[in-house]
Fold:
Amino acid sequence: MLRYEFYLSAVVLAVGAIWSLIDRHPLSPTVLPFQEIPGAILDRNPSALIDLGILIMMLTPVVTALSIALNFSRLGERKFVTITLGVLAILATSIAISLLR
Structure:
């Protein structure tokens, strides 16, 4: 699962970079707010596609950890659910700290 999400983010990043080169559109030095990314992509902004690729890459480990925790829960493995939720808490804390900077 993690591998395919990484491939997806790499493809989205590559398409955004190629699109920027073809359109000769300078890349933005700042990242768009999450809610503005879809509209910017529809407005033909390749930087928004690159931002989306980065967002997918950031969320990949979070989605994977949630999936693992759910599967361990279905199997009744409380110890591993707890460990996985601890990893998820660390990921969430890291993301929150980076967003608040």
Residues 46-75 form the longest helix (30 residues). The chain has one domain: 2-100.
